[in-house]
Please model this.
Amino acid sequence: MQRRIELVEVGPRDGLQNEAKLVSTEDKVALIRHAIAAGARRIEVASFVNPRRVPQMADAEAVVAALGETQGVTRIGLVLNERGAERAIACGLDQLGAVAIASDPFGIRNQGQTSAESVEVAGRILAMAQGAGRSAQVTIAASFGCPFGGEVDPAHVVAMAARLAELGPCEIALADTIGVGVPAQVSALVSAVRAAIAPLPVRVHFHNTRNTGIANVWAAVEAGASVVDASIGGLGGCPFAPGAAGNVATEDVAYLLARSGVETGLDLDRLIAASHWLGGVMDKTMPSMLAKAGGFPKAEQE
Model:
């Protein structure tokens, strides 16, 4: 099992994109800076999508411009098509995140593409990133279940991962877009994909929609995943997947791993403070458990 896991902070993108309350550019940049102060070194700062479909991300370029360059931090932009890739590259982002979809029903409703077509588009995005001197990664959405088609064949996900690995991404992520996965399923799929794409890293992205997210993180780590997505406060969701609420909270994942002897380089106290700050911005209680309960208790001093 990995003794150090890299956490990718996705709060500024996936954490906010499904929220009805529009967050100012200034607060988005402040959230990113909170994450950096807590030790995050890879951060999804925005998605470059149609602002009519995802109004929360309409200021993607403005966020990147206000943030500026961040020494030692990889700024990631999620893109769904070539136009989004052009925008992200023009902004000067460090890494592009493409998306392929494991389910035809979800792919057609979400991106107007079949699963096979989404792999082709992801390949073109990877080529664009590489041509611009940037790195790129690919997420396979709906890897563990589809909101419209139900079960997703694990063999299909493994075949997608193997094909995508040939196109030169820095890693491949398996996303539980609607939070239906369970640990046994996660362990089996991560193990199979890891074997199919080695030596490329496997990244995982879990939603806690059905209260299995944290358990799924541990199952993935035990199965060899080396990168985990998480969102400060546990906000998140997909606008195109009914009921896909709540990423696993960064502070909850960091606590789980730290207490299990797995390093992340993140500061729990700063993460909890960031979660409380974000709750004030959103005017709501964060789903995060650690933000409510606090970290491991310290011994009383005489």
About this structure: DSSP finds twelve helices and eight strands in the chain. The mean pLDDT is 95. Residues 115-131 form the longest helix (17 residues).
